[in-house]
Amino acid sequence: MKIELVAIIVDDYGEAIEFFVGVLGFDLVEDSPSLTNDGRPKRWVVVRPPGAETGILLARADGERQAKAVGNQVAGRVGFFLRVDDFDAAYRRMVAAGVEFVTSPRSEPYGQVAVFLDIAGNRWDLLGPA
Prior knowledge:
With about 130 residues, this protein is of the alpha/beta class. The protein folds into 2 domains: about 1-70, 2,3-Dihydroxybiphenyl 1,2-Dioxygenase, domain 1 (Roll); about 70-130, Roll (2,3-Dihydroxybiphenyl 1,2-Dioxygenase, domain 1), CATH 3.10.180. The chain has helices at about 15-25, 65-70, 85-95, and strands at about 5-10, 25-35, 40-50, 55-60, 80-85, 105-110, 110-115, 125. The protein has a 4-stranded mixed beta sheet with strand order 1-4-3-2. The chain has a 4-stranded mixed beta sheet with strand order 5-8-7-6, with no helix packed on it. Strand 6 (about 105-110) and strand 7 (about 110-115) form a beta hairpin. The longest helix has 11 residues, at about 15-25.
């Protein structure tokens, strides 16, 4: 058993792809036309960190309820965790690319950590080795 995908609700496919692929360095695994359950066009967009098994489905908000969830998928908590081998290099690259960090890097028993916001405003932990 494994988790294959998690969904992040976004406002715009293109901006989300640019952030996850262009800024974070994820791979664009799939970008295919699809349909909503009631037959309206949408896209099936999956990104994944290089070498990872679990991907992220970038789901464009459909309707008012979903639009309200953009950037607040986990009620303001950190809900996503990106582990990197070289924390300092990843942090510097992300800052240079304009990623908004809401905490400064710190050391914890489980490793280095700094909280950043994705394109939608969701909170992520950037995690490095202890």
